[in-house]
Amino acid sequence: MIRTIMTFRPALSVIFTSTLLCAAPAFSMTIGLVAPQHGPYALLGEQMEAGARAASQASDDKLVMIDESCEAGSGTAIADELIAAKVDAAIGFLCSESLETSLPKLADAHIPALTLSVRWPTIMEDALKKHWPFYRMAPSNKAETSKIVDVLVSQWPGFAVALIDDGTIRGRELVDSLRAPLEQRGMKAVFNDTYRPGQEQQISLVRRLKKAGATHVFIGGDRADISIIARDAKAESIALTVMGGDGMRAADRPVPLADSVLAVTTPNYATLPSAQAVTAKFRKNNIEPDGYTLPAYAAVQFLNAASQQADNQPLGDAIAKTMVQTVIGPISFDAHHELSENPYQLLEWRDGAFQTPLTQ
């Protein structure tokens, strides 16, 4: 009996193995997702994973999750994990600390990297100088400045414009980056000031703006402070058009943002026509595609398309020459490995969301 069973087992094993081979997906490529799985940034990591996993399943790509601690020097171990997993490319990278020490090793292994978050210019400068296959899907600070200048010149010509900041490195650098290009295009601020952030009221500031004759103000600060400034201007019956930068895309608290406040920021990707079908699928599964969800989906879409166009050239080179229509719109990269198309838009807060302004 034992011999009989053993006689038949090899045949059954062959049939079972053949079935598995037929059923197993033929992965197009293996993509590493570097994203926090624990700690204060875990929610952002979950957004990245939701988007990347959905896209990889749609394109039969294999997704390898790599935990990102965002600690200084952690990139070396991350690169080792990606290399050991034999990934074709890596996406994610929420933190510059992870990128800084992982990129050299990834470059040596010819593994392209796409960050969805890091905007630190020094990393890109090093990558270009050393010819690393590193690309940035997060818009650069220069892209934000460029769009703000275009918007101010085109939307506020002839108005008395003020430029103010909250004194932080981010707020001060943003506003400082605007002055020279605005003046070159004929717009000089009637009022410049630095305010103290995190205050419960900004009445003295809005009164100074009124005294200076400012009717329009661009603010380099966070959403909470800008909400308070807009509220206090209205309470003082001061007609003031208020605009902020990308920092406006934050939680609407503690003071709700008033309707008609403007922001130059990235759009809510879930509202784009290109994202409707994918957004519907996420919501059907009770997932709201917030934050990094759709950019991560788009990164996988882009890499899959680039790999198909690579032929015999390295994937990093193919990325530089590829343009892909994704859920968040067309993606391609310029000679500096930045997004070819500036994603920043002028939006207006209305009915609880940033929307296209009613009048431009």
Strand arrangement in the largest pleated sheet: 7-6-8-9-10-13-14
Oligomeric nature of the chains: single chain
Radius of gyration: 25 Å
The helix content, as a percent range, equals 40-55%
H-E order: HEHEHEHEHEHEHEHEHEEHHHEEEE
Largest beta-sheet characterization: 7 strands, mixed
- Strand tally: 14
Total helices: the number is 12
Distance between the termini: 86 Å
Strand percentage: 15-25%
Layout of helices and strands:
Layout: H1 2-23, E1 30-35, H2 42-59, E2 62-67, H3 75-84, E3 89-92, H4 96-108, E4 113-115, H5 121-129, E5 134-136, H6 141-155, E6 161-165, H7 169-184, E7 191-194, H8 203-211, E8 216-220, H9 223-235, E9 241-244, E10 262-265, H10 276-284, H11 293-309, H12 315-321, E11 324-326, E12 329-331, E13 345-350, E14 353-355
Parallel strand pairs: 1-2, 1-3, 3-4, 4-5, 6-7, 6-8, 8-9, 9-10
Antiparallel strand pairs: 10-13, 11-12, 13-14
What does this structure look like?
By secondary structure, this protein is α/β, with parallel strands linked by helices. It is built from 12 helices and 14 strands. The strands form 3 sheets. The protein has a 7-stranded mixed sheet with strand order 7-6-8-9-10-13-14, with helices on both faces. A 5-stranded parallel sheet has the order 2-1-3-4-5, with helices on both faces. The protein has a two-stranded antiparallel ribbon with strand order 11-12. Helix 4 links the parallel strand 3 and strand 4. The longest helix is centred in the N-terminal third of the chain and has 22 residues. The relative contact order is 0.12. The N terminus is likely disordered.
